[in-house]
Design a protein that fits this description.
Elements: E1 21-27, E2 30-31, E3 35-37, H1 49-52, E4 56-58, E5 61-65, E6 71-74, H2 76-89, H3 97-110, E7 123-133, E8 144-154, E9 166-170, H4 187-191, H5 194-202, E10 207-211, E11 219-222, E12 226-231, E13 235-238, H6 248-259, E14 264-267, H7 272-275, E15 279-286, E16 290-299, E17 302-305, H8 315-328, E18 339-342
Parallel strand pairs: 9-10, 9-16, 13-14
Antiparallel strand pairs: 1-2, 1-3, 1-8, 4-7, 5-6, 5-7, 6-18, 7-8, 10-11, 12-13, 12-15, 15-16, 16-17
Helix pairs in contact: 6-8
The chain binds pyridoxal-5'-phosphate and 2-OXO-4-methylpentanoic acid.
Length: 344
């Protein structure tokens, strides 16, 4: 099968229309089996609760091509688990794992020509989404739901490719309340963050960094990624917070640090100002962000450097990146059983 003639290395994180997407409907309390369709537009009732009250959630994952041509997903069952934790929080029906995985596999297979080849630096981003459809006006759950999966070949999330160092700016706007929806992958969390991202970019940063909403002291996460810190005393730290998205990438990186690098790891509240001097390296991690080293953070009206300007990635982030991406691309043996091959 031929691949599309795209300039894979030039791709950014933008939507590219592929040939097929999968759609299934939940009606009268039951999921239909779903099918592939070619129309990228959704026809939706003007009264749909997903449009008015943000009754919708989504997931993000990637398929990669290995050197031997295998097409690999990374821990997709955890994305299904997370969607099925978010869905009931928003009074939406869970998506059965078999439907979730089948939808992803069928969509990836049908769009084989769009999966970036091994070594191209790009990957196929997969966006599963669950939306409340059908008519409704009051603040009630939707009568029907659509589960849809589309894919798009993508390059790096931050415009600098690979392991380029990024910067974050602490936002005075909160992303999520302590007992709100921050730990769920609800689209509503992201709408509220658009302004924070814009303000961060105006300061010259790549992304907003959120501190805990109650005290504005402890690191929560970035707009689209969790945070990890390599401390000067040799540990890998990551924030404990009930307001952040439980990142599958972070969970994997923490396990790699502990088991493959024999590092001491700690998931605990991290006080940005009090602990900054103990930061040796920092990174933002997620499906889209992969592992992007953080070189400096804007807070209290100033830039605070972790790396000196112009410095490239530090050794801990480099090792973690190599391990993570090596496994995801099938270059390093998958000792943790994280890969899910799609038969093409
Ligand atoms: N935090 C936020 C707000 C995100 O949107 C994402 C991306 O999904 C992550 C963290 C990283 O999560 P994961 O590693 O599961 O992609
Ligand atoms: C992902 O990393 O998959 C996300 O969903 C983040 C999004 C803002 C691109």
């Amino acid at each position: 099968m031929n691949k599309k003639a795209l300039n894979w290395a030039e791709l950014g994180f933008q939507y590219v229309k592929t040939d097929y997407r999968f759609t299934a409907f939940h009606e009268n309390g039951e999921w239909g089996e779903g099918q592939l369709v070619s129309d990228e537009n959704i026809s939706i009732h003007e009264g749909a609760p997903s449009l008015h009250y943000a009754q919708q959630c989504f997931e993000g994952m990637k398929a990669q091509t290995a050197e031997d041509g295998r097409v690999l997903l990374f821990r997709p069952k955890l994305n299904c688990e997370r969607m099925n934790r978010t869905a009931p929080r928003l009074l939406m029906p869970e998506v059965p794992e078999a439907l979730f995985l089948n939808a992803i596999e069928e969509t990836v297979r049908a769009n084989y020509a769009w999966i970036p080849p091994y070594g191209s630096g790009a990957s196929l981003y997969i966006r599963p989404m669950l939306i409340g459809v059908g008519e409704n006006l009051g603040l009630n759950p939707a009568p029907e739901y659509e589960f849809r999966v589309f894919v798009s070949p993508v390059g790096p999330y931050y415009k600098e490719a690979g392991l380029a160092v990024i910067s974050l700016a602490v936002s005075e706007i909160d992303r999520a309340a302590p007992n709100g929806t921050g730990s769920f992958k609800a689209g509503a969390n992201y709408a509220g963050g658009l302004l924070a991202t814009r303000k961060a970019k105006e300061l010259g940063a790549n992304e907003a960094l959120y501190l805990d909403a109650a005290e504005h002291r402890y690191i929560d996460e970035a707009g689209s990624a969790n945070i990890i810190i390599a401390s000067k005393d040799g540990k890998l730290l990551t924030p404990a917070s009930n307001a952040i998205l439980p990142s599958i990438t972070r969970r994997s990186i923490m396990e790699l640090a502990a088991k493959s690098l024999n590092m001491e790891t700690e998931e605990r509240p991290i006080d940005l100002r009090a602990e900054f001097a103990n930061f040796d390296e920092a990174g933002a991690c997620g499906t889209a962000a992969v592992l992007s080293p953080v070189g400096k953070i804007w807070f209290d009206d100033d830039w605070h450097n972790i790396y000196q300007d112009g410095q490239t990635v530090g050794p801990i982030m480099q090792k973690l990146y190599d391990l993570l991406v090596g496994i995801q691309k099938g270059e390093i043996s998958d000792n943790f059983d994280w890969l899910h091959e799609i038969e093409i």
